[in-house]
Amino acid sequence: MTAEEKLKKTHEYIASRLDGAPEIAIILGSGLGAFSSRVQDQTYLPYSEIPDFPVSTVSGHEGRFVFGRIGSHQVVVMQGRVHYYEGYAMEDVVLPVRLMKLMGAQTLILTNAAGGVNSEFSPGDLMVITDQITSFVPSPLRGPNFDSLGTRFPDMTEVYDKKLVQLLDNIGYKYNITLRHGTYLQTTGPNYETPAEIRMFAKLGADAVGMSTAVEAMAAHHAGMRVCGVSCITNMASGIADRPLNHLEVKDTANKVAREFETLIENFVRELP
Ligand code: HPA
Description:
There is one protein chain. The protein is about 30% helix and about 25% strand. With about 270 residues, it is α/β, with parallel strands linked by helices. It has one domain (about 5-145, about 155-270): Nucleoside phosphorylase domain (Rossmann fold, 3-Layer(aba) Sandwich), CATH 3.40.50. It has a five-stranded mixed β-barrel with strand order 5-8-7-6-9. Helix 1 crosses helix 3 (about 95-105). The structure holds hypoxanthine.
């Protein structure tokens, strides 16, 4: 089965289970899954029930779609995502994003836990993603182009929609939530970085580093979605932090700022045009 056939098949299955079309898609990162409690009139669809759908194996990731409403908007929320480091092909990693576009979502909100590369950041900071570096991971657009979704050679000048960045800033201001801005760099993972790698990433212009998001943003942008992203800086990256990193710390910090994060995203969705 080609990647495009797989997408079509999963979409046919979802369409048979779904009534109505979500307008906004949200992907929740490590430790941020509790956001789904902000969704009204919830229904669930576990990934494991969807034929050929990639299922996450990472602790801190639930593995289901939550459908419902926030304010006047119909939303689909991914509680848990799949990562390249789990062994999936990049086309499978971005299948869920393409699927949500086919469901009807025109806007994608990406969230993640990330390491702070910019030395002015602190653990617990929220960073609005303004640009990204994907040069260290394979392109999710490699292989036959999905002509029905987008063009072969897509422009990447503005992956993260400037109007959405502005709206996030406005919501942050209104609710007294300090927001950083920065460039997100994606690695393959699953290992954290060495101090030398982090020094290199800083020189390249990265402010935060993580193992997801950028390829999803690229696939969504290719498919013509409006994209925005928020990183929760759960730890300072290797060599900046004075101790070894671990996944527990990542989940812990994400849980600590969860309320702020939820307020930001919920009110952002409510005010989306
Ligand atoms: N590096 C990569 N990914 C991460 C980190 C990090 O320091 N923290 C959370 N996700």
